[in-house]
């Protein structure tokens, strides 16, 4: 969805890192239905579709509302609550997934390092004064972070494209690594 430049502020990096979670908080209230994309917009409520009465008329425009608050307006407090809830769910489900598998300890350790941005990527090595550059040595086009190394590098992308079904690739490459 978005990427943060290596020299971006911590605030912007935080926004970019959590953009996916924040996107989940946006919901479409269907008015006339002209701007709502059935398959892509979050427009359905928690009730069964049969109980929702969609009255499509020309008078009301579709509008985006914030589902994190009762009045539909965005607030930083509600956004932080959504991010915290997602982080707790991700942390629990991610570690449940990892530890409930009978994986070799070195794989569990690798996953822990990756999840905590502790892999010795060029970006981490450069930050510690152990490398001359933070750039990826394979594609030489961007900073080699954990996400870049495992998913976004041209070599990693070619591997993932052969493994992830084509209809799911756009979502796969847009989501955070842990998802």
Could you please describe the fold and organization of this structure?
InterPro entries: RVT-Znf. This is Reverse transcriptase zinc-binding domain-containing protein. The chain is mainly α. The chain has a domain at 103-179. The protein contains seven helices and two strands, in the order H-E-E-H-H-H-H-H-H. Strands 1-2 form a two-stranded antiparallel ribbon. Helix 5 (146-152) packs across helix 6 (154-163).
- Count of discrete alpha- or pi-helical segments spanning 4 or more residues: 7
Q: What is the number of strand segments?
A: 2
Mean pLDDT: 80
N-C termini distance? 14 Å
The outline comes out as elongated
Helix percentage: 40-55%
Unreliable segments of 5+ consecutive residues: none
How is the quaternary structure best described?
single chain
Question: How do the SSEs run, as a string of H and E?
Answer: HEEHHHHHH
Pfam family, one: zf-RVT
Organism: Carnegiea gigantea
Domain Reverse transcriptase zinc-binding: 74-160
InterPro entries: RVT-Znf (IPR026960)
Strand-helix topology:
Layout: H1 10-24, E1 26-29, E2 63-66, H2 76-100, H3 105-115, H4 122-127, H5 146-152, H6 154-163, H7 169-174
Antiparallel strand pairs: 1-2
Domain Reverse transcriptase zinc-binding: 74-160
InterPro entries: RVT-Znf (IPR026960)
Protein name: Reverse transcriptase zinc-binding domain-containing protein
